[in-house]
Amino acid sequence: MRIATWNVNSARTRADRMLAWLERTGTDVLAVQETKCRDDQFPYLPFEAAGYEVAHLGLNQWNGVAILSRVGIEDVERHFPAQPAYGDPGVVEPRAIGATCGGVRVWSLYVPNGREIDHAHYAYKLEWLARLEEAAAAWLGQDPAAQVALMGDWNVAPLDTDVWDPSRFVGRTHVSPAERDAFAAFAAAGYTEITRELVPEVNRYTYWDYQQLRFPRNEGMRIDFAWTTPALRARVDRVTIDRDERKGKGASDHVPVVLDLAG
DNA sequence: ATGGTGGAAAGTCCA
Asked: In chain A, how many domains are there?
């Protein structure tokens, strides 16, 4: 089975490209972030025609997450337990959706950006990660044999080598010790970040800004990851960061990260 | 030109 995560930066703009990629790579399950649409606006038809079932969560033009699966999609869960709200009045944003696909509990996650260190969005980001870690720990605690994948755009660069020029990120979000601690907490909860384990090489980015020729210069960031439970980790044979998908007109600013599972 | 790109309730917010 092949499962992947991809921040597509608008599902409507990218539907053709997403479908072509799914069919070309033979991907069975895709966790999608930044669909940027409401549920009624999602382009279900082309995916369903290609044999994929769709679970989508979107409230407006911001955020939006989905899971596409051709191996079944059961027990869909919108938001994780105790997922924090943001703003006044507080809104639980569409940043997390879970479903069981081919026996794997897949979560598509779009972690809040944080914006600036002194911004309310940054505190929200840390709280969001802390509550997610608690939920993740509980899932594994309830079933130590569970196959869970926490996949998505984490908006955290865990290592200095995950950003193209660390000197430019001093005092910025994505690299702060608090964010890195919040990210690392998933390891203490019993999960393994399998993409790092199988693709340890530096300068293997998953995101490049649209501006200033960042992609041709390979000035990117590695911020898309997949935390896996022990039972799922044992099945992951290969991880691929599909850098080529950043090329050409109409690309997302993120590329797919792919997990190949045994069996 | 100093947000230089791209996507989204269409005017500004978000990344």
From this structure: 1
**In 3-state terms, what secondary structure has residue A129?**
helix
Distance measured from the CA of protein residue A186 to the C1' of nucleotide B14, in angstroms: 28
Domain hosting A127: range is 2-261
Q: Single out the residue of A253, A240, A242, A236 nearest to residue A1, CA to CA.
A: A236
Nucleotide nearest the Cα atom of A155 (by C1') = B15
**CA at A167, C1' at B1: how many angstroms apart?**
26
Per-residue pLDDT tens digits for A226-256 = 999 999 999 999 999 999 999 999 999 999 9
Q: Terminal CA-to-CA distance of chain A, rounded, Å?
A: 7
Domain of residue A222, CATH code: 3.60.10.10
Residue A141: C-alpha distances to residues A75, A98, A131 (Å): 19, 18, 15
- Check whether residue A87 has its CB closer than 7 Å to nucleic acid strand B: no
- A192-210 pLDDT, tens digit per residue, is 999 999 999 999 999 999 9
Nucleotide with C1' nearest the A153 CA: B15
Residue closest to B6, CA→C1'? A210
